[in-house]
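ok new one. same drill as before - structure tokens go in, u give me an amino acid for every spot. 126 of them this time. try not to just spam alanines like last time pls lmao
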């Protein structure tokens, strides 16, 4: 029986704090998504989810990394996949870039395609 994988998650506000402490962001959105909008942070690595299996060797194993996508769903699957492959310091940013934009955190590009109502009043992610 395989051990259950528990996905660690942080909201965008906590992500901001962790970035200040040196965490790396891994954006797994596809190229067209990143071209529209990217996060304006000091340390970010772009590897599309569709290329992850081929590029997994590019990921740092000993570093603390927060994985991001638009809604937090794809990144959650990626964190699970990476933990299964021995990458234990990877955390999912729940609610994704949609919540990041809602909070007014730094971005580059066009935020207009991100819906402003995606959190549906969920008070768990401040």
């Amino acid at each position: 029986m395989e051990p259950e994988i528990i996905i660690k998650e942080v909201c965008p506000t906590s992500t901001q704090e962790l970035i200040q402490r040196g965490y790396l962001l891994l954006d797994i959105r596809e190229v067209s998504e990143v071209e529209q909008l990217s996060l304006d942070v000091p340390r970010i690595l772009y590897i599309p989810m569709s290329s992850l299996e081929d590029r997994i060797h590019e990921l740092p194993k000993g570093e603390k990394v927060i994985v991001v996508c638009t809604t937090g769903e794809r990144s959650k699957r990626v964190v699970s996949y990476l933990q299964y492959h021995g990458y234990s310091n990877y955390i999912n940013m729940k609610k994704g870039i949609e919540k990041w934009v809602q909070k007014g955190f730094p971005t580059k590009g066009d935020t207009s395609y991100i819906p402003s109502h995606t959190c549906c009043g969920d008070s768990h992610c401040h």
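The beta strands are 9-10, 24-27, 37-39, 44-46, 65-68, 90-93, 107-109. and btw Helices lie at 12-20, 31-36, 52-55, 73-84, 96-102.
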